[in-house]
Design brief:
The protein has 344 residues and is α/β, with parallel strands linked by helices. It folds into 2 domains: 97 residues, Aspartate Aminotransferase, domain 1; 223 residues, Aspartate Aminotransferase, domain 2 (3-Layer(aba) Sandwich). The chain is built from 12 helices and 11 strands. The strands form 2 sheets. The chain has a 7-stranded mixed sheet with strand order 2-8-7-6-5-3-4, with helices on both faces. Strands 1-10-11-9 form a 4-stranded mixed sheet, sandwiched between helices. It is globular.
């Protein structure tokens, strides 16, 4: 029997999509299982072409991997490992960045978030020096869900030497309204030192299938692709991605369902006295600067079999279905009321 997070009544720690693959994608994957006895491509070519055609670029700009984490590892191996350089990133952020940076021999430089739960771009830029190999930005940010605007991102990138690579992690971009998204291709044209990372794990509900990709200047992409693992992409990934792209209406409905629940949960948490940042992802961040209160909430969640992601400054709660939200709110209602919690 599984004893991991997935066995919890309410697994809200990993920002998984609570509804599974889109119905038509599930059907396509089920049919494709008949070919599971066949090897995938030795190195992936069809999948990068498929993604490139969708987003409007040449296949030479696309590198695929085992989820965003797999792609990030390839980037770190290509950019950071050769020099053992510094990686400037927000704290907290996606755990994979500091962990994998150390794995390849790099040195994480952690920059605390602002009081509003946003990445502190001024402080991050100030810490970039000649020893820096990579800078990481998440948009929306993980774990707070806060959003960078085009103007502030451009202002930051204008301050970074183009010899330094910058990752823009867009794992949650599908949850951002289209008019608020950054034009990735225009960004790469102006800033060829940027790598955009995306995944099919979140909005598309394919976390278990492990498929992510990077978009970059072809010269950078070639360096990253050098670390591609032979037979590393499942034969189902191409089928899943193609089916996802054909399911726009289903995806829109799914995103609307999750974002509506996120907004409802946010409003309810604020009604309980918590001051939390607006989220543009499929999670909310509950700031908790009082260790005693954090322990009380952890115990309450434990009694309800709710699993969330804990940080020194708070908790990230994945947006699940309505039952999950009600369980979270019921647990918090049983904890002593707050007057006001400071933001992340």
């Amino acid at each position: 029997m599984l004893t991991t997070l997935e066995s919890a009544a309410f697994p809200l720690a990993l920002n998984e999509n609570p509804y599974g693959p889109l119905p038509s994608v599930h059907h396509a994957l089920t049919r494709a299982l008949a070919s599971a006895n066949r090897y995938p491509e030795f190195l992936p070519h069809r999948l990068p072409r498929l993604i490139a055609a969708r987003i409007g670029c040449t296949p030479e700009r696309i590198v695929v991997g085992a989820g965003a984490t797999g792609v990030i590892m390839q980037i770190l191996q290509a950019i950071v490992a050769p020099c053992g350089g510094r990686v400037v990133l927000a704290d907290p952020t996606f755990d994979g960045y500091p962990l994998l940076t150390v794995t390849v021999g790099g040195h994480p430089v952690l920059v605390p978030l602002t009081a509003q739960g946003s990445q502190d771009l001024d402080s991050m830029a100030a810490l970039v020096d000649e020893q820096t190999a990579l800078v990481v930005l998440c948009n929306p940010h993980n774990p707070t869900g806060t959003l960078l605007r085009s103007r502030e991102l451009a202002g930051f990138l204008d301050r970074i030497d183009t010899r330094i690579t910058v990752i823009l992690d867009e794992a949650y971009v599908e949850f951002v309204p289209p008019e608020q998204r950054i034009d990735a291709m225009a960004l790469l044209t102006t800033y060829p030192n940027v790598i955009v990372v995306r995944t099919f794990s979140k909005a598309f509900g394919l976390a278990g299938l492990r498929v992510g990709y990077a978009i970059s200047d072809p010269r950078i992409a070639a360096r990253i692709a050098h670390w591609q693992v032979p037979f590393g992409m499942s034969i189902l990934t191409e089928v899943g991605v193609q089916a996802c792209y054909a399911a726009e209406d289903e995806l829109s409905q799914r995103i609307r369902l999750i974002t509506n629940e996120r907004n409802r949960l946010t409003a309810a948490l604020r009604g309980l006295g918590y001051e939390l940042p607006d989220s543009s992802a499929n999670c909310v961040f509950l700031p908790l600067n009082d260790p005693a209160r954090a322990n009380q909430i952890s115990e309450a969640f434990g009694r309800a079999d709710i699993r969330v992601k804990q940080y020194s400054t708070g908790m990230r709660i994945t947006v699940g279905d309505r039952a999950a939200s009600e369980a979270v709110l019921a647990s918090l209602a049983g904890v002593a009321p707050v007057v006001l919690e400071s933001s992340a």
